[in-house]
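User: Batch of two.

Assistant: Item 1 of 2:
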Amino acid sequence: MKRLFLALLVIPQIAFADRAFYSAFSLVPGASALGNIKYSATPFTITANTSDAADNMVAQLSGGGAIGETRGSYIAVHGNEHSNAGAVNLWAGNTVSSNINHVLNNASAKVQIFNASTQVLWAFSNSGTFVSSNITNDIGWNPVNAANQACNTTCTSGCVFGMNTGALGNFVSCSDTTADTCICAGAS
């Protein structure tokens, strides 16, 4: 009980709109003064104190002592009226070992990207293999034709792959200088 009391004294700058917070959380002392925050309410929701059409706030969560990739990875979620309207930004730290990892621990798990109507646009298996796409219109890839080009320099929007029309199999890497057609990830 002493640790819980101490933890509440350490955070006097946090104001709670109602006492529901106290019934939804329990502070469990751990290695730090605050320990862990556990919730019992479902769904567990953290929101900005804004009204509809005035959602101009951003919420950020960092693994370091401040926001910024020099301090560690962090995530920022923006309200629809913020200057970065409705965006979800995820940054890795700026060290060599900083990664953004999607870990799938189930053999049948996959990474899926949905559109607003929950249609699967892209799906990848847990081995990284492309599984499916339900995109029926233009996906934005553009061909650029020129003899003997390296697609990683031809494509200003990023290279998907190259094709050498005179080679067996046709497909070549983006850095191969024998490509006659480059498939670029956007307008180039």
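Item 2 of 2:
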Amino acid sequence: MFHDTKVPAENIVGAEGDGGKIFYRMMIPERLTSAAGSLGGARAAIEVAARYTTKRKAFGQQIKNFQAVSFKIAEAPDRARRGPRPRVRDGQPRSTAVRSRPAGCAGWCRSPRSSRQRWRGTS
């Protein structure tokens, strides 16, 4: 867009060709601001979820009293700070990685889908 554009010497900021360095220096605070906004949104969502667990009832008691729900709420702030889990296993993207199984495994290990079905309790 700005190929062969003439700029007077007194209007050049920094050295010639250093525009990229200036741009990347300016992006550091921008990235931090974006990250802070995301963490703030996550914190607000966790607070809403925690309040909801005291309002919602199941089987005659608040759902915050169920172990699975209380563990999820307790883990949420730490997971929000850490960010998403890596999507790689054994150097491959998680969607394509297949764990190897011993040759003597039962008939349920015919394909990668079979292992997921077994964990879910379906056939």
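The chain is about 50% helix and 5% strand.
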